[in-house]
């Protein structure tokens, strides 16, 4: 099971459905937040900044379409993935939802397996967008060739070492929590020791011959050059 540590907001006014969706998404390793109406969905979206928002079309206070419209007017949510999950499956409603700015439209009822597949397909867009070379000081990180260039020197890292460095370097200065790193790189289906990250960080520093990863004691790690 692959786990990228993505944040998902699910908004629906049916408590039982929320529970089922949350259970299956969490089981796959996603970080899940729920909302029971349109207004709460907007507030939770502002708080959490999810990678994907799953909206019911018919909710109290604001409909899914209204929520989508509100979020798409704000710069911070213009690239956020939005999926409608609704019992309304007529063609005109689907077209309206997609024209509002949704990335996908799924009709209820849907099996958890199919929904998870659609969620994974959407989130792969983010992963593909992220696979770009990163230039930071003398370091260039090339995800296509899986190599790191430090000045004129080309350095080959082990797969997990490279993935860890790339994750941190995507957001320089941001502190990544230990659990966040474990979920993103190793996933919930792999049991690793508490020292696993420390060992990989040490190897990265040794191979790059520079200390570009800072340890924030008791919290996590951040990339700085």
UniProtKB/TrEMBL annotation:
<dbReference type="GO" id="GO:0005829">
    <property type="term" value="C:cytosol"/>
</dbReference>
<dbReference type="GO" id="GO:0000156">
    <property type="term" value="F:phosphorelay response regulator activity"/>
</dbReference>
<keyword id="KW-0597">Phosphoprotein</keyword>
<protein>
    <recommendedName>
        <fullName>Phosphate regulon transcriptional regulatory protein PhoB</fullName>
    </recommendedName>
</protein>
<dbReference type="Pfam" id="PF00486">
    <property type="entry name" value="Trans_reg_C"/>
</dbReference>
<feature type="modified residue" description="4-aspartylphosphate">
    <location>
        <position position="56"/>
    </location>
</feature>
<feature type="domain" description="Response regulatory">
    <location>
        <begin position="7"/>
        <end position="123"/>
    </location>
</feature>
<dbReference type="InterPro" id="IPR011006">
    <property type="entry name" value="CheY-like_superfamily"/>
</dbReference>
<dbReference type="GO" id="GO:0032993">
    <property type="term" value="C:protein-DNA complex"/>
</dbReference>
<comment type="function">
    <text>This protein is a positive regulator for the phosphate regulon. Transcription of this operon is positively regulated by PhoB and PhoR when phosphate is limited.</text>
</comment>
<dbReference type="InterPro" id="IPR036388">
    <property type="entry name" value="WH-like_DNA-bd_sf"/>
</dbReference>
<keyword id="KW-0805">Transcription regulation</keyword>
<keyword id="KW-0902">Two-component regulatory system</keyword>
<feature type="DNA-binding region" description="OmpR/PhoB-type">
    <location>
        <begin position="131"/>
        <end position="225"/>
    </location>
</feature>
<dbReference type="InterPro" id="IPR039420">
    <property type="entry name" value="WalR-like"/>
</dbReference>
<dbReference type="GO" id="GO:0000976">
    <property type="term" value="F:transcription cis-regulatory region binding"/>
</dbReference>
<dbReference type="InterPro" id="IPR001789">
    <property type="entry name" value="Sig_transdc_resp-reg_receiver"/>
</dbReference>
<feature type="domain" description="OmpR/PhoB-type">
    <location>
        <begin position="131"/>
        <end position="225"/>
    </location>
</feature>
<dbReference type="InterPro" id="IPR001867">
    <property type="entry name" value="OmpR/PhoB-type_DNA-bd"/>
</dbReference>
<keyword id="KW-0804">Transcription</keyword>
<keyword id="KW-0238">DNA-binding</keyword>
<dbReference type="Pfam" id="PF00072">
    <property type="entry name" value="Response_reg"/>
</dbReference>
<dbReference type="GO" id="GO:0006355">
    <property type="term" value="P:regulation of DNA-templated transcription"/>
</dbReference>
